Amino acid sequence: MQNPGLKRRKIRALLIISILLLLIYAKNLIERQSFQSISSTFTEVYNDRLVVEGYIFQISEHLFQIQKLVDHCNLDYDYSRVVDEIEGHENRILAIVEDFEATNLTTQEGEYLGDFKEIIVDDLSIKSYDLLYNDQQGINVEQVKLYDQKISQARLDLDNLSKIQMEEGEKLISKAKVLINRSQIWAQFEVALLIILIVVMFLLVFRKSEETKGMIS
């Protein structure tokens, strides 16, 4: 007949082993979610921050070309097609803005981007070359200054958008670091659980063999 004390110890040991296994399983589920969050965070850094910074750079280049055409910087340039060229740069800017709008925008980004888009569509749309230049008076200095002011305002919106990319990127990197540190803690916790599990199983087997020897002797 089995010793009641031995039976209780077995039940207690099996209970401890079951709890440890459940804890290890729960830890693995948590760690899997953590890795998914880390992956999602780095994807967001790339898609919504690094790629967007590229959009801002491309927009700045087109804006620079518009300003050159508006200011008549190149005296040897044929300005007979200037309105069409400005419109072409504006259309390319708006196409990039559309891609920009498809990213995960913060509230501030939405405001700056909306203001920027409004400037391109409403304030920099030049319908006639006479607004910039005519044969009698030459360059329309006042109108050119007005366009330059609007371009400066658009550049300010771009600068603010670029700053947001840096700030949000730093936040995402910090979040990833927290998740990685947490994952390392959980890994150490799992090692501790495995050590405890091994000790419990060793004690269970060792005591069983000792008691079996005692019964035989």
Automatic annotation (TrEMBL):
| Residues passing through the membrane, by range | 185-206
Q: Which keywords belong to this entry?
A: Membrane, Transmembrane, Transmembrane helix
Name the InterPro entries on file: HlyB_4HB_MCP
Tell me the Pfam families matching this sequence. 4HB_MCP_1
Where the record annotates domain Chemotaxis methyl-accepting receptor HlyB-like 4HB MCP, the positions are: 9-118
Q: Which domain of life is it from?
A: Bacteria
Protein name according to UniProt:
Four helix bundle sensory module for signal transduction
Give the originating organism.
Answer: Algoriphagus faecimaris
